[in-house]
Task: inverse folding
């Protein structure tokens, strides 16, 4: 399993899901999962999905610029660091963002998101 | 110990050291430490310091815009996510950057950097 390939596949899946059916992101989080979104701290899959679903835009399209990944230690986790831009419907210019995910392995051989930190990069 | 206060103190210490005596950053890394700098992957404190020391500028000044942190799991680690800007001597405009650190506790009650990912945010 090539970690870079796993990271890239995760990131593509994450933003494709975000842009098409945000509520479906719940399956990627668990009760211990944490999201810090523009400084707001949220814990647990249900609360995270509620937060993401409540963002004040309906349609958006993420474009990924870079994906970096590193193993996070002996627990088999993986850190994924993304930069990109976010185009909202009705906005002329895309917003640049950075986001990091800490992916942890599940017993089923998949990953869930334990940590998620998102920031817009204001120009 | 307030994690946000620890993260903020670490970040201030890190960039103050970077901007004054980059070689002294070696004390914050260990052999297992990883740095991904603009896509380049480096492992180990000595190689990381060599990389940081070889960057093609002598003087710089980091300005921190945001610091977010989360616990990274049962190992007592902490994820620190930073956005800010980097002013190089002789350059008119600062460069925006994002960086994440995964801090792990040491037996002495301090932290070292296990993971470090840095990206410039091109406008």
Result:
């Amino acid at each position: 399993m090539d970690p870079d390939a796993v990271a890239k596949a995760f990131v593509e899946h994450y933003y494709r899901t975000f842009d098409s059916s945000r509520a479906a992101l719940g399956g990627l989080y668990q009760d211990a999962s944490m999201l810090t979104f523009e400084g707001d701290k949220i814990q647990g899959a249900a609360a995270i999905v509620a937060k993401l679903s409540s963002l004040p835009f309906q349609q958006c399209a993420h474009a990924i610029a870079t994906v970096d990944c590193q193993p996070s230690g002996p627990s088999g986790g993986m850190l994924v660091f993304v930069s990109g831009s976010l185009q909202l419907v009705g906005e002329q210019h895309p917003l640049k963002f950075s986001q990091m995910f800490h992916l942890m392995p599940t017993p089923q051989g998949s990953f869930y998101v334990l940590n998620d930190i998102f920031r817009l990069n204001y120009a």
Q: What stands out?
A: Chain A has a mean pLDDT of 94. The beta strands of chain A are 29-37, 40-43, 60-71, 78-88, 95-105, 111-120. The longest strand of chain A covers residues 60-71. Residues 8 and 67 of chain A are 7 Å apart (CA to CA).
